[in-house]
């Protein structure tokens, strides 16, 4: 009975290149997802210097007033009163 039992490891074929690529690609995808979830959960404090720089060009844009455009020819002016029936 002891001679009938075979305790040798089962024969498992070596993974192919595509199987390895898929395996490591899935690991990299999981790591990327964890980084994205952590970026959402953990807030990053904003520095005051970064906030000050974008506000300066905005204030320059606010100082410039947009030119008033004349009503285009294809648009009809709104009627003042409704027609009576």
State the secondary-structure class: mainly alpha
Order of SSEs, N→C?
A: HH
Shape label: elongated
Low-confidence stretches: none
Q: Work out the helix count.
A: 2
What is the β-strand count? 0
Radius of gyration: 35 Å
Describe the largest sheet: none
Q: End-to-end span in angstroms?
A: 108 Å
Beta-strand fraction estimate: under 5%
Mean pLDDT level: 76
Question: How much helix, percentage-wise, in residues?
Answer: 40-55%
Biased composition (Basic residues): 75-85
Protein name: Protein MANBAL
Transmembrane segments: 24-44
Biased composition (Basic and acidic residues): 48-64
Description:
The chain has helices at about 15-40, 50-65. It is mainly α. The chain starts with 16 loop residues before the first helix and ends in a 22-residue tail after the last helix. The mean pLDDT is about 75.
Topology:
Elements: H1 17-41, H2 48-63
Q: Keywords, please?
A:
85 residues, mainly alpha, 48% helix, 2 helices
In short:
By secondary structure, this protein is mainly α. The chain is built from two helices and no strands. Helix content is 48%, strand content 0%.
